[in-house]
Design a protein that fits this description.
PPM-type-like_dom_sf; hydrolase; GAF; HATPase_dom; six-stranded antiparallel beta sheet; SpoIIE family protein phosphatase; 22 strands
């Protein structure tokens, strides 16, 4: 009797623990640490409704990543008893493989794939609604007794409300993240990939502010016009919502159309753009700075620019002094205020070794300084482009954020007298890649297919840099584990960075879930930590560290998990 009371007391404690769960990770930990012990089982799984009306496996403490992906989604009419329990509100008790096959041959496949011979599939009900099912498994076959059936039924009844709350919240968060991610992807998709221009080294860092589901009105564009000069533009449409992003897209598209085959200079282009805004975007209010740049013999840059209420261009000259390109009289009116007011065009020639910077308000806005001081303060953080790579500078500057300033941030740099390195070739279906020498940075979506994309990135980089096949295979395996973990536990896009040097291959995987991974004691019945055991065994070095203020998108918090492989020195 004492043992029975202990089980029921443990069950009550488990229900209390679940009631405090805030995330799916908390639920998984409660099931692994307490639920399995209460039921004497080897694993638990949770099946809930999918958005398309089918069923999805949300949690499984006994499934590897491969098995989870195999059973991740089932149609609404799936014959698997876990889906039938959720669909029909019935309990299925499967004592052995023979019984599993009698329920349906696919259930026998589950037994074979998992090594679990005995299963209980229990409906999860809240009020009168069945929203999913709980799957409990044991390694050894055997009948179910009356007391065990009662325990299972009470276990499911206690679990259902808390699980429903957490899963519903998770689905809502995931849906919101999907919408925000889609909006950001669409926004980034209309922004330029920088062209390769002889005599210039170009780099950009673009970071929308993260306020709820906000996306921004910042925009930039860089392209070579039909007449041969390079046009650089940075602007900001008022607002931080979807309407601002849509207006930004249309404004940028109008500028491209107006400028592509025109001989107009920056001032005339801004005037024409303002007229188009007045006619086609009457409610839009935007700032912009427009620069026409032509490389001159000897490595200098002939710069013509016009400004419509935007922070003016900055120049770090080769001798180190910083200049704000603002003529007497100040800057001209914003776009959308008065299209009858003409803009003024300015001109200067920059020497080789100069660094030209175009930025938005979020970069230089400082509530304790006037705009001119803030611009100069930012300008003094610019470094000699001949000694510090422009791309590295751009990324470093983009990570510096005032927490009190909630605005989008765009930094566009042009190093004068330099030729950018071309991006290495790779498979056409790879995500957009920023590459410098033997390194790659890729932002992947929080989706199952990202593991395969990560493997391709690592194979292209490592294989192209002379790593042997064994090392490439190992790197592919390990990056797949890290990205799978990020997809499973993360709530954001995933930043993959891979770099190859003569003696080391370093791979970093970052997401915006700030909980660091743990290497748990080896347990065939537990999911968490299995991939890290593999990383620990196969990598020459690995680790994880929190990231504060520089998440995947450059803001927020998160973590980076990394591993390194060392290239063996050649023998004597």
């Amino acid at each position: 009797m004492d043992g029975e009371r202990s089980v029921w007391r443990d069950l009550a404690d488990f229900a209390v623990r679940l009631s405090a769960a805030a995330t799916l990770e908390d639920v998984l930990r409660a099931l692994t640490d307490h639920g399995l012990r209460i039921l004497g089982s080897a694993g638990c799984g949770l099946v809930t409704r999918a958005e398309d009306g089918g069923w999805e496996l949300v949690l499984a403490t006994s499934f590897s990543g491969e098995l989870r992906s195999r059973f991740a989604h089932e149609p609404h009419d799936s014959p698997l008893p876990a889906c039938r329990a959720a669909r029909e509100g019935r309990t299925f008790l499967v004592p052995d493989r023979e019984a599993a096959h009698a329920v349906h041959p696919r259930m026998a496949d589950v037994v074979d794939a998992t090594g679990r011979a005995r299963w209980a599939l229990l409906p999860l009900r809240v009020a009168e609604e069945t929203y999913g099912s709980l799957a409990v498994s044991w390694v050894a076959p055997g009948p179910f007794g009356d007391e065990e059936e009662e325990l299972l039924a009470v276990f499911a009844a206690h679990c259902a409300p808390s699980l429903h709350r957490v899963v519903s919240r998770h689905r809502q968060d995931r849906a919101t993240a999907h919408v925000v991610g889609l909006a950001r992807a669409l926004q980034r998709g209309v922004l330029s990939r920088l062209p390769a221009v002889e005599g210039l080294d170009l780099a950009v860092d673009y970071r929308p502010v993260r306020t709820g589901a906000s996306i921004g009105g910042d925009w930039y564009d860089v392209f070579t016009r039909a007449r041969g000069d390079l046009l650089l533009a940075v602007g900001d449409v008022a607002g931080h919502d979807a309407r601002a992003a849509a207006a930004m897209t249309r404004l940028r598209t109008m500028l491209r159309a107006l400028a592509w085959d025109s001989d107009d200079g920056p001032a005339r282009l801004l005037d024409r753009l303002d007229a188009a805004v007045a006619a086609l975007e009457p409610d839009a209010l935007a700032t912009a700075v427009l620069v026409s740049a032509t490389v001159v013999p000897g490595g200098g840059l002939d710069v013509r620019w016009a400004n419509a209420g935007h922070p003016p261009p900055l120049v770090r000259h080769p001798d180190g002094h910083v200049e704000v390109l603002r003529e007497d009289g100040g800057d001209d009116l914003l776009l959308g205020v008065d299209a009858s007011q003409a803009r003024t065009e300015h001109r200067t020639v920059l020497d080789g070794g100069s660094l030209l910077a175009l930025v938005t308000d979020g970069v230089v806005e400082d509530r304790e300084s006037d705009p001119e001081q803030a611009l100069l303060a930012f300008g003094h953080t610019l470094q000699d482009p001949r000694r510090t790579g422009v791309q590295e500078q751009c990324e470093r500057l983009g990570q510096v954020r005032d927490p009190d300033v909630e605005d989008d941030r765009t930094i566009l740099l042009a190093g004068v007298g330099h030729t950018p390195l071309p991006a290495p070739d790779g498979p056409a279906d790879l995500p957009p890649v920023e590459a410098v020498a033997s390194s790659r940075v890729v932002v992947l979506p929080c989706a199952p297919g990202s593991s395969a994309a990560a493997r391709r990135v690592v194979r292209v980089l490592a294989g192209g840099d002379g790593w042997d096949e064994d090392a490439v295979d190992t790197a592919e395996l390990l990056v797949s584990e890290l990205v799978t973990n990020a997809v499973t536990h993360g709530r954001s896009d995933i930043r993959l960075q891979a770099a190859s040097s003569p003696d080391r291959l370093l791979v970093e995987v970052g997401d915006e879930n700030d909980r660091l991974p743990e290497v748990l004691p080896a347990d065939a019945g537990a999911l968490s930590g299995r991939g890290l055991h593999l990383v620990q065994a196969a990598a020459h070095a690995w680790g994880a560290h929190p990231v504060d203020g520089t998440g995947v998108t450059g803001t927020g918090t998160g973590k980076v998990v990394w591993f390194a492989l060392h290239r063996e020195a050649p023998g004597p």
